[in-house]
Design a protein that fits this description.
It is a single chain. This protein is of the alpha+beta class. The chain has helices spanning about 1-5, 30-35, 45-55, 65-80, 150-155, and strands at about 90-95, 105-115, 120-125, 130-135, 140-145. Strand 2 and strand 3 form a beta hairpin. It is elongated and about 110 Å long.
């Protein structure tokens, strides 16, 4: 055995236990692997690519006939409100995109609280049935449906 020790000056260390630092705890395999993960040189670039690929719609301009039909429906809603009713309607309206041209069409169904001429909006009742809820600008409305206004669709050619 002496001969093996002469050839390898570190032979006495080969059988010692592996050193564990008290100051630096052993790193988990997950953290060790993370050191070698790909480096994102362009931080936020993935978000820019995703935003560029997100589609938006253009706001459709209503024809005169469609504008007149919406005006009649709003008049019927206003008449019902003056009679003490809160008709339930569904509005399809345009929401402009905050980041790029265009936007998206959304629908909202609820009971109408009032039509606000100052704000130019249809105001719905909140979930509690008394206070002001969502407001939808009249200029953004593309379609109104509901029992109180559906008869105007049947009267149009």
């Amino acid at each position: 055995m002496k001969m093996a020790d002469e050839r390898n000056p570190y032979a006495d260390m080969l059988r010692l236990p592996h050193h564990q630092s008290a100051r630096h705890p052993r790193m988990s395999l997950l953290n060790r692997a993370a050191q070698f993960s790909p480096y994102a040189a362009l931080v936020g670039f993935d978000g820019v690519i995703a935003e560029t690929g997100r589609l938006t719609e253009a706001k459709a301009e209503l024809s005169e006939t469609e504008q007149e039909r919406l005006g009649r429906k709003l008049a019927l809603i206003d008449e019902a409100l003056r009679g003490g009713l809160s008709p339930e309607i569904t509005v399809r309206f345009f929401v402009p995109d905050a980041l790029k041209d265009g936007g998206a069409y959304k629908e909202y169904t609820g009971k109408v609280r009032n039509i606000d001429p100052v704000e130019g909006a249809v105001v719905f009742l909140a979930d509690n049935g008394r206070s002001r809820g969502r407001a939808v600008r009249i200029g953004m409305i593309a379609e109104i449906r509901g029992e109180a206004v559906d008869e105007t669709d049947e009267a149009d050619p």
